Amino acid sequence: MTTQVVAPPLAYGPPISLEAASRVAEAARAHAQANGWAMVIAVTDAGGHLVLLLRMDHAAHGSVEVAQRKAATAAAFKRTTKGFEETLATGGATLRLLSMHNAILMDGGVPLIENGKLIGAIGVSGMHPTQDGQTAEAGARVVNG
Amino acid sequence: MTTQVVAPPLAYGPPISLEAASRVAEAARAHAQANGWAMVIAVTDAGGHLVLLLRMDHAAHGSVEVAQRKAATAAAFKRTTKGFEETLATGGATLRLLSMHNAILMDGGVPLIENGKLIGAIGVSGMHPTQDGQTAEAGARVVNG
Amino acid sequence: MTTQVVAPPLAYGPPISLEAASRVAEAARAHAQANGWAMVIAVTDAGGHLVLLLRMDHAAHGSVEVAQRKAATAAAFKRTTKGFEETLATGGATLRLLSMHNAILMDGGVPLIENGKLIGAIGVSGMHPTQDGQTAEAGARVVNG
Amino acid sequence: MTTQVVAPPLAYGPPISLEAASRVAEAARAHAQANGWAMVIAVTDAGGHLVLLLRMDHAAHGSVEVAQRKAATAAAFKRTTKGFEETLATGGATLRLLSMHNAILMDGGVPLIENGKLIGAIGVSGMHPTQDGQTAEAGARVVNG
């Protein structure tokens, strides 16, 4: 018989600085630009409040809210929104996630973790969710390593 | 010919006291702590208004809204949110439930019933919905017996 | 000619623990109980998300939202809501504050500060705003000293 | 008999580019930094949708919504929010402005006008509204000349 081990939960840390948020957003933007993608990139603190948002030229303005909500969801639930998307895709009971109004269930939101603490999150929107997710990860790597 | 019997509808009773809400929440917290789960526990009155809410250390802050809505849904519709979740999981026409914006369709919300009257509800969020539901039931048993 | 010195702004710190929030709320509740006041007491983290809320028996349920918003306002703007109330009372241009929808301009919200950082806030509602403010201060002293 | 001349209404133009929005925001930030002010600076397009937002370190997170609403109000009504504030300050019937929920009546929101067309707006929040307004003007001058 194995003992079930529960991982220690991820703690919320101090808010990400504007300087760090700028480096995260720039890495995401560089990834987007290299691919010719017009995107909105949002970085929030651990509380889900914006620290930086930029909309590349010709990105749809509907993506502003989506990018913000992806970052806020990643901060609020301490996980990637890709995880939510994949769970939802299995169908059946997981449709319940759609009734959680403070979560967007779409790839593109990634927590930012420093010294083992969540200090913020990045959210990206504008292309296919998979591309949004890649771009968010490109930004997150600046902090998450 | 049989007579169709409709159960008398559950009446709303007087609001749960803070003392009783505290005992409910403590039982839920003890269950969570014994399992190493970081959770948000909410207790509302029959009107769906908070009487007590506590967020255990390191629980995701997104769970605050989810726990509240689970309790409020259980009070508003006089049923467990697990019931809604199970109905939704059958698919088809039951997807209509997702358009009921004042209901969260996810295990973890349980009515509190005393002397045959609904006096409040408990909502729990933070882990898998099944674990949230177990924890809510552990709290509800203090009142529901 | 004097040099105008701008005080270094108050930093946001790590979230208040449930244990500390409980001590804050208990001190506020003791103050309320000693005066025979039925109140709602809310404690949030630095991001304005609830850590603890309790409604004393017979407190009006409308006070649940008011107490939460007082705490959230104190965290969001790093100041007491009494300050907002006093500014508004001077009339004239200060009426502009009423158009700030994310602020409640009523005594009873106080930041919680530890080691020079804002780690949360307390909000109290249920009686006259002055009494709400006194009760919030009674709670805040546990952390603020 | 004189002829009453009505000025041609200000037309909405094409959306401000991210490059121009960055220059506007940087000028505002330089003004804030020179004064030691921690502020949130938002730039929207003509539709009131964010193009760029940055929160300087230690700016209150409540200022995020306020800065956004100042910019959005300036774009939505094609005027400075200072104008609304001054009208409100005259009292009496002007209190009606407070019932316009899509307007914040507080200095710090300024339209951005290029070739006689409104292409966006800047909103600043974090200090006294007069200082917010000065900072927004410092940014707006980059475009408005």
From TrEMBL, chains A, B, C, D:
SUPFAM superfamilies assigned: GlcG-like (SSF143744)
Coiled coil (UniProt feature): none
Pfam family of the protein (one): HbpS-like
Name the record gives this protein: Heme-binding protein
UniProt source species: Stutzerimonas marianensis
